[in-house]
Design a protein that fits this description.
With about 140 residues, the protein is an alpha/beta fold. The protein has two domains: about 5-35; about 50-135, Nucleotidyltransferase, domain 5, CATH 3.30.420.270. It has helices at about 20-35, 80-95, 110-120; strands spanning about 5, 10, 50, 60-65, 70-75, 75-80, 100-105, 125-130, 130-135. α3 links the parallel β7 and β8 (about 125-130). Keywords: Cell inner membrane, Cell membrane, Membrane, Protein transport, Transmembrane, Transmembrane helix, Transport.
Length: about 140
């Protein structure tokens, strides 16, 4: 029970955890705001779609095709044979991993189809195309 002495309420014995919880919530919010899902170093102008479903997971492989038609696997430039070899190695280690394809809006459609054909040959089932959101 709290006792009053000269109008001042004394606290019960124990630890007040409210400030600790406040600090933890602030740290959590800062962590969420500073973490991002972008791949650093590659600027790609994504085509727009009316709705998009986030497919990125921790083991997701990202294939990016820039406006010049250069192919990147997780921010590293690769040729199509190198891409196939690396994805086959990953499939041997982890048979079920998602792949996302990020193609610049200005890239020739044929280059994206070549990458999608390669993914079909490897028999990867979880393939997603990344788009930007439509403004408006």
């Amino acid at each position: 029970m709290a006792k009053r002495a000269f109008g001042i309420k004394k606290r019960d014995k124990g630890i007040n955890v409210t400030p600790f919880v406040d600090v933890l919530l602030v740290v959590l919010v800062i962590f969420i705001l500073t973490s991002n899902a972008t791949i650093p170093g590659l600027e790609v102008n994504l085509p727009k779609a009316s709705s998009s479903i986030p497919l990125e997971k921790p083991k997701t492989k990202a294939i990016t095709i820039d406006s010049a038609g250069q192919v990147f696997l997780d921010a590293y430039a690769v040729t199509l044979p190198e891409l196939e070899e690396r994805l086959r190695l990953e499939k041997a280690i982890n048979a079920d991993f998602p792949v996302i394809v990020r193609g610049d809006a200005q890239v020739h459609y044929e280059r994206v189809v070549e990458v999608l054909d390669l993914l079909r040959r490897i028999e990867l089932g979880q393939v997603g195309l990344v788009t930007g959101k439509v403004k408006g």
